[in-house]
Each structure stands twice: as structure tokens, then as C-alpha cells.
Write a structure and sequence with these properties.
The complex is a heterodimer of chains A (241) and B (102). By secondary structure, chain A is mainly α. Chain A has helices at 2-33, 38-48, 51-62, 67-78, 80-91, 97-105, 109-117, 124-148, 154-160, 163-178, 180-199, 206-222, 228-240. With 102 residues, chain B is mostly helical. Chain B has one domain (3-101). Classes of the chains: A mainly alpha (241), B mainly alpha (102).
């Protein structure tokens, strides 16, 4: 059983690792060019552990913005994880309270995505190893970028940029194959996000929050999701009736 | 304790608290049906917006490489499923296309 936890976690964790390394290297390089020390760069990735907001923080720092403004921006940018944790909390209810402090720390977009579509039981070994793969990619990439600079060939770095997207697609496909509703919601969410980005009215990070709220609300309203067993039971009744 | 250390601490706090709070707010409470249905739709809604439109610029200024890379992931994903092979394959495909275009 433990072996399966490890195997399944690495299957999801390795692609996240691959996807995190290139942006983490870029962060390390950027941090160095902003006169941030190696220790501080490490702490950014190791303690904050939130991709986009770390880049935004460096940019704002360079414009001369004070900590207060940057921290507020970070809150806005990362608030989407509130919704993701809300979902995850319904999935790992039976897990002991003391583990949620660690699990909550590792709730990133990609970890959330893998966890939410995982068909297996979310044991603590599975969740922790998955999160550790993501974390180690992000932290080690940051240090490598800071110390070594752009050591990977440019074409390889560029191609690795596709990994996080193909990961999300691979996670989603089994659901899309079986549920027309999922297809509709994914496309609707993508279109709404595109429109919101074009309009450019909301602060960083809030386009996706609006997408999640609107699309999940629409999804819950129009077609109520049913547990599989219930669905099959109903279909059975229909066939007999 | 200089400015940067304070900044890191502040950023860590405002990132961590929203990630942690729902586990306490929702915890083991029984949720109304409507809220449960809403929460169930969050993953699909979130991933849709995480992919689109970002994917179109996944490899900046190389749309053909993106189409081939994602196309490979989609084909393998539909045909065989799994995560590792679609992801590694998409990176390899993108790499080859970039090599050929260079």
C-alpha cells in the first residue's frame, strides 16, 4: 500500500517538478539581478512558495514599492488558493488535524489540480510526497538559477514551459472524456478568463477568482453533480420504467 | 531583520492563511447541498482558467511548438491516459519542433 502511495505520488509529482524548475531558475536569476542575497532568494521560495506572486514582488520591489503594498498585492494574487483549499478540505476530512498545517502550506495550483482529479484515496503519504516533489523543484530551481544562472540550454527551458499546461490537460482528460458538463465548464471558464484578461479591469490574480466563482456557481446551478452510484441507480430506474 | 526579511514574512503569512483557513472553516461540518455542488465544480472551473488563455503563450512566440506539444499530450492522454508520458512527450515534441524551426 505504502509503495502505491509513493508510486502514484511520483507519477503526479515528477511532471510538477519538471514544470516548476524553469520558472524557479528564472526567479533565481531575476532575484540575483535585483541585488537580493542567496539566502533571501532561498527564503522567498522556501517560505512563501508561491510562483507568480514572487515575480510580482520582485518587480514591485524594483519600482520602489514598500513592503505593505507588496504584501497586499500578494494577498490578492494568492487568494485563489482559498477556493482551492475549500475544495480540498471536503476531500481529506478524515485526515488528522495536525497534518492540515503542512498540507495547507503546499496548496499550489498544480498540486491542487492533481489532488482534485486523483481517482485514489488521498492518504497523507500520497499528498506529502506529491507536495514535496513540487516544493523541491521550486526551491532547488531557485538556488540553481541564482548560483548557476541560465545553465540549461535555452531551447530546453522554452520547451519545459509547456509542461505545466500539458500536465493540467492530462489531469483533465479522463473527466472530459466522460462528462459533457466538464467540457462545457472548462471551455466557459477559459473564455471568461480570456475576456477578463482582455478587459484588464481587475487586480492581478482576481480574473481567475471571478472565473472560479462564476463558473462553479453556474455549474452547481444548471446541472447538479450527482455521485456516480446515484446516477447509475437512476439510469437503471429509467431503463426499467 | 531588514526590509526584505520582513517582506518575506509578510508575504508568507498572507499566502499561507488563505491556504489554511478553509480547512478550519469547513472542517467536518455538514455542508448544504448547494454549497457542496458549488465546491465540486471548483476544480474544473479553476483548471479551465489556468489553461486558457495561458497555454497559447506557453512557449512565447512559438505557436506551432505549442500546438504540436499540446496535441501530443492530448492524443496520448485520450488514447492511453496517464500523466508522465503525456507531459514528458509534450516537452520532447516541443523541443523537437523548436530545434527544427531554429
Amino acid at each position: 500500500m505504502v509503495n502505491n502511495d509513493v508510486k502514484d505520488a511520483l507519477k503526479g509529482g515528477f511532471p510538477i517538478f519538471i514544470g516548476y524548475v524553469p520558472p524557479a531558475i528564472a526567479f533565481g536569476i531575476l532575484a540575483k539581478s535585483c541585488d537580493i542575497t542567496l539566502l533571501e532568494s532561498f527564503l522567498f521560495s522556501a517560505v512563501v512558495f508561491a510562483g507568480a506572486s514572487q515575480f510580482i514582488a520582485l518587480n514591485l520591489l524594483m519600482t520602489g514599492m514598500g513592503p505593505g503594498g507588496i504584501i497586499l498585492t500578494t494577498l490578492l494574487v494568492n487568494f485563489r488558493h482559498f477556493l482551492m483549499s475549500a475544495y480540498l478540505s471536503t476531500q481529506i476530512r478524515e485526515m488528522a488535524k495536525r497534518y492540515i498545517f503542512l498540507i495547507a502550506f503546499g496548496v499550489t495550483d498544480e498540486v491542487f489540480s492533481v489532488l482534485s482529479f486523483s481517482k485514489r484515496k488521498l492518504t497523507k503519504a500520497f499528498v506529502f510526497i506529491l507536495q514535496l516533489s513540487a516544493y523541491s523543484g521550486w526551491v532547488s530551481g531557485t538556488i540553481a538559477g541564482y548560483v548557476l544562472g541560465g545553465f540549461l540550454p535555452e531551447i530546453l527551458t522554452k520547451s519545459m514551459g509547456i509542461a505545466l499546461y500539458s500536465l493540467l490537460l492530462a489531469i483533465l482528460l479522463p473527466e472530459l472524456k466522460t462528462s459533457a458538463k466538464a467540457v462545457c465548464l472548462v471551455i466557459a471558464s477559459g473564455i471568461l478568463n480570456t475576456i477578463l484578461i482582455k478587459l484588464d479591469l481587475l487586480p492581478d490574480g482576481w480574473n481567475i477568482i471571478v472565473c472560479i466563482l462564476v463558473i462553479a456557481f453556474a455549474g452547481s446551478f444548471f446541472i447538479s453533480p450527482e455521485p456516480k452510484a446515484l446516477k447509475q441507480k437512476k439510469q437503471g430506474e429509467k431503463m426499467h420504467g | 531583520m531588514d526590509n526584505i526579511m520582513l517582506l518575506i514574512l509578510g508575504m508568507a503569512t498572507v499566502t499561507y492563511v488563505p491556504r489554511l483557513a478553509p480547512f478550519f472553516l469547513i472542517g467536518s461540518n455538514k455542508l448544504p447541498k448547494k454549497v457542496g455542488a458549488f465546491l465540486k465544480c471548483i476544480p474544473v472551473a479553476a483548471i479551465g482558467a489556468l489553461i486558457i488563455p495561458g497555454v497559447f503563450n506557453a512557449v512565447p512566440d512559438e505557436p506551432l511548438a505549442v500546438v504540436c506539444g499540446m496535441g501530443f499530450a492530448a492524443l496520448i492522454g485520450i488514447w492511453r491516459g496517464g500523466i508522465i508520458i503525456p507531459v514528458i512527450g509534450s516537452v520532447a515534441t516541443t523541443y523537437l519542433v523548436l530545434l527544427l524551426l531554429a
